[in-house]
Amino acid sequence: MTGADALGVEDTHGILALPGQTLIASSEGLGWRTLFASRQIEQPYTGYFGACADHLIVMHLSGPVRIERDFSGERACAKVQRGGLFILPAGRDFGVSLDGTLETIHIYVRGTMLDAAARELGVDPATLAIMPGLGVHDPVIEQMGTVCCTMLAERQSGFFADAVARILAARIVSAHSSAMHAASASAAGLSSDQIDAVRDLVHRHIEEAITVDSLALAAGLPPGQFARRFKHTTGRSPYQFVMDARLDLARDLLLRGAAIAEVAVQTGFTHQEHLTRMFGRRFGMTPGRFRSAAMH
To answer: Which of 91, 117, 245, 288 is close enough to 170 for a disulfide, judged by CB 3.0 to 4.6 Å?
Structure first.
């Protein structure tokens, strides 16, 4: 395949060909040369896939769901939330076991795009090593995943796909490669692994009291240092981060018609009045009004 050829489904791992997979949209036939994207509903399956020449990003559009991945013999398992990412470097075999129905978007970024991004960032492409990830969150990649969904729905041309490919390539090199890891580790903020550990603890213990000490322990830092570095990285205090996670879950439960008292318990609020007060500050209405509006 030459660099001028469009990426197509034949360049992927073949997941779309598995029984029970429902394709919603793909870039097949759109002439995208630096990117291939497909949006689909995946049914539970277990499979092992040979390496591809290009880098794969899978973004979960629903969830949570339990996923087990095998990265060339390195096993990882996670309960991945909506928006969570699976990042697979080019040239890596992988296995997967999906436990539930899941909507995803698969994005393949041509390897030459990452080489070009590395050079722009002052990194020798020959030394570049992309770090695989399961269940990680990256707001830039998540935004580009949403953009790709829109581009597929609107059947946009390769001109726009090239722009997204450049952004994704730069982000993968700058945030998900060993070449940049040393620089990020010495910065004032937290590493992506530390943020993921904190996020995972919050999701697993959302019904419970969550202290700064427990979050700091997950990140492997003293509480005071953790709080400063967390604020530097996220722009929020640990308290606000936990509160936002509780309120996001409360909103989702209310959209499904859950009782307010039940929502308070499941999201870790000490009492219903506390939920009502904090929900009003965040969303501008009481939980009761929000649920009523959502159900009509």
So the answer is: 117
